[in-house]
Request: fold
Amino acid sequence: MPEEIVFKTEADMPPLPMSLGTTLVNKTGSWRYIRPLYMDKTPPCNNKCPAGEDIVGYLALVKEGKYKQAWELIKQENPFPGVCGRVCPHPCESKCNREELGGAIAIHTIERFLADWAASQHLGVSASKQRYDAKVAVIGSGPAGLSCAYHLARRGYPVTVFEALPLAGGMMRVGIPEYRLPRQVLDREIADIEAVGVEIRNGMRLGANLRMSDLDDYDAVFIAVGLQQSRKLSIPGEEAEGIVHGLEFLNRVHRGEEVQVAPRVMVIGGGNTAVDAARTALRLGSKATILYRRSRAEMPAITEEIEEALAEGVEIRYLTTPIEVLTESGRVTGLKCVKMGLGAPDESGRRRPIPIEGSEYTLEANTIIPAIAQELEDGSWKLEDGSWKLEAGDRRPALSLAAGLEVEGGRIVINEAGATTAPAIFAGGDAATPFGTVAHAIGSGKRAALAIDRYLRGEELSGFPPIEEAVHAFPRDTSPIIVRFEDLNLAYFEELERMAQPQMPVEKRVRGFQEVNLGFSEKDAQAEAERCFSCGTCNLCDTCLIFCPDVAIARLMAPPYPVPLACLNGAGYKVNYDYCKGCGVCAEECPRYAISIEEELKWKK
Reply:
């Protein structure tokens, strides 16, 4: 039987940290002053997703060919993967560490692939078996309203959505042209929302045929009416015949109305609505020009949409602002404009446009489409004559809404939980937040659903992250540390070029409203997912196990794995601390920064 070696004096110790006998008796872990810990961290893409998706998780599933599980993982957080895969500005990609080695992962195109694949397989979302008695009303069926309804219904609450338009979808339906978002994609994802138990009542306008008394039976209300009213140019002549605002123009085209556009169309603005209006006018046979008061670098529209518009023949005049609509017999004939210079950044972070004195010039125009911004529609958030009064402790939504909501800067005031200043009333989406994207609205609706769930169960609404951060219906237990490019071990990665999404040829797409982007094939989706670094997320690559000099690391499982690799959260391996000397080789070699080193003193009891 081997005997334990005990050093009586320092002189008895070896000159190097080496074992003089069997380690079965003399365990070498006591030499350690630091210990390695498997600790999944936050990938930058996950951190930047406004809808709160586990992007690295579903990309890992795509790599394994597990498309159903990947789609289900998205649907836990976002009811609109088919929509977001087409129209989201994908801020997740702007922070992707892959950008440094071949270009950011085409995350939104893979998301679209999963949504389209799920539709081809006729997959659906199951209704909750849990049922609560408390009922919730949602005003507005845009991305925020439907997201809130979806997450509440999946928790077991009866939800009724009231929509003023004949069909649900809000701006997704009437504000985004079909060449970007085919209506069947929107319809099938709304059908999924109805399938989990959400009732949608169309043609119900707040303040008209939807009265305050209709809300008496509901225990909470979520207001997601969006910004329906176009902001005026506030320049002389803008009431002339031939001016149609961007949202109205897109809505009329969507409804199939015969929209008369003149041969020369000027669109004013630099956002997605302006680009959509110009591309739509082009498809209706006009020569379309966008006037934008800043430079291309400051233009807020999605970069790909700008590039597609230019490829189709839309002209963009930068650093130009209209100062007067020119008319003849009450009809638009042109625009008087002024050239702009750029000064210091303003509150938006973009350089402030400054008129250049003496630079006025005119442009011929027969139709003008202002698309500079939207505002909260008057009367869309308060009702009737305001004669109702709240008594102390009264929490009925109808009375709260009658008493009025606080509005500041053109938006309904909410706190970090999405709660308004009135009891039982919550708000979100563009009517209450400044972000202006479908993905942000989806996240806003989910935030309100989580808050309403707490509210109806009598819990406090504290602890929500700031409005600009995403919330999660199914949070992963990960470290908040965001993985940087320099945190990765680049010895394990090679430069691989980003897959390009195929598009319909320009000469064909400008002749109609068929979808421009054609999506990934299964082969392309897998190849693109394989480029993902899985930043901060252990995926059982065995690098730590191979490099451990003390053979102190062991796998806890073998294929087939019971959960997706990207959802193991550091549970795929076990460190035997009796023998780990804390050399740190495992952490140094880990390709993805999924192992951390901490001082041993923190682990002493």
